[in-house]
Write a structure and sequence with these properties.
This protein is an all-beta fold. The chain has no helices and nine strands. The chain is globular and about 40 Å long.
């Protein structure tokens, strides 16, 4: 399986801000569908359980144009997955809001650079 990932938030222990990181993965699935996976870990690469999670896939530059029929569900501790068929036209991104305690991370990650070639 080809796995590509993008680190959304740095996990420098000395930097101010969240002490956890979000990675976005895409894995090919059957019939043109893909699994879009968000993995949330602490600075020691251990899964993080969030208090709040919301994410969707929208067109780059127009976050109101949301790809219909996509819902993320928690598939493992700190892992959220959606099965997606992406339209061939346009660029799409994962946008989300993740919260643990007082720390909130907003993400916007283009999907096209992560797609299997």
């Amino acid at each position: 399986t080809i796995r590509r990932r993008k680190n959304i938030h740095g996990a420098d222990r000395n930097a101010p801000g969240a002490r956890w990181t979000v990675f976005v993965f895409i894995e090919p699935a059957a019939a043109g569908r893909h699994k879009v996976i968000l993995r949330v870990t602490d600075i020691f690469d251990k899964p993080i359980t969030l208090e709040e999670f919301s994410a969707h896939i929208s067109r780059v530059g127009d976050e109101k144009q949301i790809l219909p029929g996509v819902s993320f569900s928690e598939t493992a501790p700190g892992e959220y997955t959606a099965d997606v068929t992406l339209p061939e036209n346009g660029e799409w991104e994962v946008r989300g809001r993740l919260k643990k305690g007082l720390e909130v991370v907003l993400i916007a990650q283009k999907i096209s650079p992560l797609m299997p070639k």
